[in-house]
């Protein structure tokens, strides 16, 4: 059975969002949700846990 690690990341600087998303993608994180917040948005990510 696959197991996942989860992470939430706040975004309030639109200009840097692309950089953050690219970095997270290279690290293996997949965006699975978005929610509005007082300061902007929060994105939720998951990444499969590996044994190695």
Pick out its properties.
single chain, 52 residues, alpha+beta, three-stranded antiparallel beta sheet, 3 strands
Notes on the protein architecture:
It is built from 1 helix and 3 strands; from the N terminus they run βαββ. By secondary structure, it is α+β, with helices and mostly antiparallel strands. Strands 1-3-2 form a 3-stranded antiparallel β-sheet, with helices on one face. The longest helix has 13 residues, at 14-26. The protein starts with a strand and ends with a strand. The mean pLDDT is 90.
Characterize the largest beta sheet: strand count, sense, and whether it forms a barrel. 3 strands, antiparallel
Can you count the helices?
1
Q: What do the pLDDT scores average to?
A: 90
Shape: flat
Helix content: 25-40%
Set down the secondary structure blueprint:
Elements: E1 4-11, H1 14-26, E2 30-37, E3 40-48
Antiparallel strand pairs: 1-3, 2-3
Brief digest:
Helices cover 25% and strands 48% of the residues.
């Amino acid at each position: 059975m696959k197991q996942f690690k989860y992470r939430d990341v706040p975004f309030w600087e639109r200009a840097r969002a692309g950089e953050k998303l690219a970095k997270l993608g290279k690290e293996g994180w997949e965006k699975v949700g978005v929610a509005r917040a007082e300061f902007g948005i929060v994105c939720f990510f998951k990444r499969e846990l590996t044994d190695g």
